[in-house]
Write a structure and sequence with these properties.
Elements: H1 3-12, E1 28-30, E2 33-36, E3 40-41, H2 60-65, E4 81-84, E5 87-90, E6 92-95, E7 102-103, E8 110-120, E9 124-132, E10 135-140, E11 143-148, E12 157-165, E13 168-177, E14 184-191, E15 198-201, H3 210-214, E16 217-224, E17 230-238, E18 245-253, E19 259-263, E20 269-273, E21 279-286, E22 289-296, E23 301-309, E24 312-317, E25 323-331, E26 353-361, E27 367-369, E28 378-382, E29 388-396, E30 404-412, E31 418-425, E32 429-433, E33 439-444, E34 468-473, E35 479-480, E36 489-495, E37 502-508, E38 511-518, E39 523-526, E40 533-539, E41 545-552, E42 555-563, E43 568-573, E44 588-590, E45 593-594, E46 600-601, E47 603-606, E48 617-622, H4 640-645, E49 649-653, H5 663-667, H6 675-691, E50 695-705, H7 707-716, E51 724-728, H8 734-740, H9 744-747, H10 761-764, E52 780-785, H11 794-805, E53 810-815, H12 825-843, H13 848-853
Parallel strand pairs: 48-49, 48-50, 50-51, 51-52, 52-53
Antiparallel strand pairs: 1-14, 2-6, 2-8, 3-8, 4-5, 7-14, 8-13, 8-15, 9-12, 9-14, 10-11, 10-13, 16-17, 17-18, 18-19, 20-21, 21-22, 22-23, 24-25, 25-26, 26-27, 28-29, 29-30, 30-31, 32-33, 33-34, 34-35, 36-37, 37-38, 38-39, 40-41, 41-42, 42-43, 44-47, 45-46, 47-49
């Protein structure tokens, strides 16, 4: 057993801990202290003596079995209130007698709720034992485990139940229906693995767990009305225990915080603000065709502006509100037995889908087709005066790197005259009009306009995932690469017609921040977002306010409003406040190191709650290694706060090649494929262990997904410092991924630009973990979604077979029906538990959880 975590847990739970007698410590712990409500009077329903269709009457035990309140939402501490029919009941502490029995008042048919908490530092098997005179039900984590329904029993009824509990915090709720006689009960727990592996407590405080990550209401995005007075906020929540979820939108008055309208449970889609007036538009389907409506929520009037649009896809309002540009599209795929591919992309399911643009005149309802042909046309922007639109087409072209060509056109929507702005651009860009319509703001990679935007030092090829901004003059066709010396990578941008500044969301190392760019001074200014990671932002049509959703490294996503004039922000929605109120987080801090060439590799550390530097801790090293950094976001695929809550120190580092550190740094990703990355991870891990005496150097694990899964595999061919390694959806053979993955060869344009299996075997073969499998000595877990189209399942299969044939310690777990990301609610919980159980086996010497999940079978 890991004594380190037990000691830390004992400190955390020092308040309100209740222990059994010393004689019980080695075997069983009786729950002696409880939080209990005042007595609640219950009444039998009308006609309770009348038999129902099954011949049953309503008895006292049925009162106890009724769930009058949601037990999952009860998590009280002493002196908290429970609202019962508008009566405020107080949770009070009550202790058992010397024999461990808790006595309740001898009042006839009174309901009592009792709560206690169990905290365990490892997965375990437990025996829950009950002795009770009154009617009673015992719940653990919301699930009924024991019950006794004999009323006014002369002797205590005994029962027991075996439980299997995961590491962490568990809630025990007891419901008692009293009688006029003896109302005593005793509840005890015994661990079948380690008597000291759990503690009993009256505190609802707990560490992060997977349910705290997944459950609760999440704020997803905001959209502001034209004057910035109202916000359309998008929310989602899971619906456990099912795999379903719910998504909805609400309109909030920003000044008062009042919710004016909610679109919950409706069949409305594509809800958007109009550019003028406080109105929204939305779509609804009738008989498979789409209608568009406008609703003025101040006048409370609705108007249908068009109907019967077949194959509708999306729509955008013109800035003057007089027309809509919408797109329709459908797939040209056929039901086939034999298929001749019309190019490399034709194997992708969506390749034969085509979409085209239409114009809807709102006043007359006239619909006109704007584009036609064999290539999809995509709307880029609508000019402020409503006269012109920008749209793009793109096509594959295998004649030269980077194999895709983009055309940008301007169309006068009154005359339908089309003007080509650029043709056959090698690196595509997203374009929008300047407020006066004379320039374009273009977002693209460093090579979007050739060498003019590249600031990559001596590297031959840029990483074109590193977003840049350009101002393109329509008359002169001159290009100004405004982010040439700006290191953060651009995610999104908008040109404000009010103050003529450009507002930007950009990846700044492992932060995502908001910036403004002044056209006159050519200076970037960071806005105070009061957060670590901004997920999305929206500028009001009048240019006065910005709405955005953002989080901190240890705080969930919230919706904010930023006032451009006062440069202040405030929170308008924090739906997870109550959901996370009892969660305790450990300390986080930056930890960087400098390589011999002078490069600083940044990283950060997550410490267990109530960390004790005098103890020894196992270490988990996390990374991505691909072309983007691992942001300081809350939750995510690998919620590192949760890993630290499991008793690990977590070290995350950002190796060379990531965007957000400047173009030269990101260009290191090209034609590297992990060698520099892996060596930096090894170097950083060794330095971290050396500089931190509380790390157990023999208990170090590593984990990564996708390119990070490849990195996990590659690391084990170059070092033996890890005691366990986990690769999710990892690439084992760069060549097979290049050819089979849906994004294989297109991703390689930014990973191995101008390099191929036939001219760079030193990369595709020599640097592939599969061809170095004999060097691996570290125990490894391979995880993979069975329907992964990005990194095909075969990447894990072939590594598993190689390591098995070599007699290595390897496990392979598939997640049925999942793609590159594990998104199914219940499967994600199982997937996370698989990771925790594997690390517990190798980094904590606790194999029971893994053995329970995946027992060996004699096949």
């Amino acid at each position: 057993m890991n004594k380190i975590i037990v000691s830390a847990l004992a400190v955390i739970l020092s308040v309100n801990l209740c222990f059994a007698s010393s004689a019980e410590d080695n075997k069983e712990k009786t729950i002696k202290n409880w939080l209990i409500t005042d007595a609640i009077e219950l009444h039998l329903p009308a006609f309770n003596t009348t038999e129902d269709f099954s011949g049953s009457t309503f008895e006292l035990k049925n009162l106890l079995q009724e769930n009058q309140i949601d037990l999952c939402k009860i998590a009280p501490k002493e002196s908290d209130k429970l609202n019962w029919n508008n009566e405020q009941l107080t949770w009070k502490k009550k202790s058992a007698n010397s024999k461990g029995f808790l006595s309740l008042s001898n009042k006839e048919s009174k309901l009592y709720y009792l709560v206690s908490y169990l905290n365990t530092d490892q997965w375990g098997e437990f025996e829950l034992s009950l002795k009770s005179y009154p009617m009673i039900e015992v719940y653990v984590d919301g699930k009924k485990q024991l019950s006794q329904y004999k009323h006014e029993a002369d002797e205590a009824k005994e029962s027991s139940k075996s439980l299997k509990l995961e590491q962490g915090h568990h809630k025990i709720v007891v419901k008692v229906l009293s009688s006029s006689k003896n109302n005593q009960f005793q509840l005890a727990l015994k661990s079948k693995i380690d008597a000291n592996a759990f503690e009993l407590s009256l505190s609802p405080k707990q560490f992060m767990n997977i349910n705290k990550v997944l459950d609760g209401t999440k704020v997803k995005s905001t959209a502001l009305s034209f004057d910035g007075k109202y916000a359309l906020i998008s929310y989602s929540r899971t619906l456990p225990p099912s795999d379903k979820s719910e998504n909805w939108k609400e309109i909030q008055e920003i000044e008062t915080g009042k919710t004016l309208y909610t679109f919950r449970g409706t069949q409305l889609s594509n809800i958007n603000w109009l550019p003028t007036g406080n109105q929204i538009s939305y779509t609804k389907k009738y008989n498979g065709k789409t209608s568009i409506f406008v609703f003025n929520f101040e006048k409370n009037t609705e108007k249908q502006i068009t109907e019967n649009i077949a194959d509708f896809s999306s729509y955008t309002w013109a800035p003057n509100g007089k027309f809509i540009i919408y797109s329709v599209g459908k797939s040209n795929s056929e039901d086939w037995k034999m298929k001749k591919f019309q190019g490399m992309e034709d194997r992708l399911p969506w390749y034969r889908y085509r979409s085209f643009l239409y114009k809807l005149d709102v006043a007359s309802g006239v619909k006109q087709r704007l584009t036609y042909g064999t290539l999809s046309t995509n709307l880029a922007d609508i000019s402020a005066d409503g006269k012109n639109i920008l749209f793009t087409t793109s096509r594959p072209d295998y004649s030269g790197y980077p194999y895709f060509k983009q055309n940008l056109y301007q169309m006068n929507v009154e005359t339908f005259k089309v003007q080509s702005i650029w043709e056959d651009k090698l690196v595509s860009g997203q374009a929008q009009y300047s407020p006066d319509g004379k320039q374009l703001l273009v977002q693209g990679g460093p090579s979007c306009f050739g060498k003019i935007g590249e600031n990559i030092g001596n590297h031959p090829i840029a990483n074109n995932y590193d977003g840049q901004l350009y101002i393109y003059d329509l008359a002169s066709k001159k290009v100004d690469p405004i982010t040439y010396n700006f290191d953060p990578a651009i995610d999104a941008s908008v040109w404000n017609k009010s103050d003529h500044k450009i507002y930007i969301k950009a990846q700044d190392k492992d932060y995502v921040k908001l910036f403004s760019y002044d056209i006159g001074s050519k200076e970037f200014t960071e806005l105070n977002s009061n957060s670590d990671v901004v997920r999305g932002f929206d500028l009001s049509e009048n240019g006065k306010t910005i709405g955005y959703v953002a989080c901190g490294i240890s705080s969930p996503y919230k919706a904010f409003i930023y006032d451009i004039t006062s440069k202040t922000n405030h929170v308008i929605s924090n739906p997870e406040k109550d959901h996370l109120k009892n969660v305790m987080f450990g300390k986080t801090e930056d930890w960087n190191f400098t390589k011999e060439d002078g490069t600083t590799i940044i990283g950060r550390v997550y410490y267990p709650p109530n960390f004790d530097s005098n103890k020894k801790y196992p270490l988990i090293v996390n990374y991505y290694g691909g072309t983007s950094p691992v942001e300081r976001s809350f939750g995510g695929r690998y919620p590192l706060n949760m890993y630290s809550a499991m008793g690990y120190v977590v070290y995350l580092l950002q190796p060379s090649g990531a965007t957000g550190f400047g173009q030269e740094f990101s260009a290191r990703h090209q034609n590297n494929w992990g060698i520099i990355t892996a060596d930096e991870i090894i170097d950083g891990t060794k330095k971290f262990i050396k500089d931190h005496s509380f790390i157990d150097a023999d208990k170090v694990g590593c984990i990564g997904a996708s390119y990070g899964g490849f990195t996990t595999q590659l690391l084990q061919t170059r070092t033996n410092i890890f005691a366990a390694a986990i690769s999710h959806a990892g690439i084992s053979d760069i060549t097979s991924y290049w050819g089979e993955g849906y994004w294989g060869y297109s991703y390689s344009m930014n990973a191995t630009g101008k390099s191929f299996p036939w001219n760079r075997k030193d990369i595709y073969v020599d640097q592939s973990p599969l061809f170095n499998a004999d060097k691996i000595t570290t125990p490894m877990l391979l995880l993979h979604g069975s329907q992964d189209t990005n990194v095909p399942l075969g990447e894990s299969i072939q590594m598993y077979q190689a390591l098995k044939l070599l007699g290595k310690d390897v496990e392979f777990v598939q997640v049925k029906g999942q793609d590159h990301l594990i998104q199914n609610y219940n499967k994600r919980i199982l997937w996370n538990n698989t990771i925790f159980a594997y690390f517990a086996k190798y980094l904590k010497d606790q194999p029971k959880w893994w053995d329970e999940l995946y027992p060996d079978k004699n096949l």
